[in-house]
Amino acid sequence: MLRDIERSEIFVADLDDVVIGMAAIELFDEPAYQGAEPRQRACVMAIAVAEAHRRQGVATRLMQHVMDWLKTSEVVSIGLYVRAGNDGARGFYEKMGFEVEALAMQRLL
């Protein structure tokens, strides 16, 4: 599926001109709901850090940069999805101030 690249951003972390991490976000308009005004939101589509550079603050700096960048826009919130059982990622995002807002469920066919 092709996405609107004008509504997406990719941020990279590099060390000596070598990419060691990235964060990809997508911007979207949330329609008006129950009388509320429409608003712009962001979703973290991916964040990754090269294995040799994990647990050194790279992901934290990437996410902080993303959030600082979004604060200069009309985006009012940022969200993401974490797979059940991925306690490391969930802990990381909670440390960054994210809270559980919903629970997604699925059933294999």
TrEMBL record:
Keywords: Acyltransferase, Transferase. Residues 1-109 form the N-acetyltransferase domain. CDD domains: NAT_SF. One of its GO terms (molecular function) is acyltransferase activity, transferring groups other than amino-acyl groups. This is GCN5-related N-acetyltransferase.
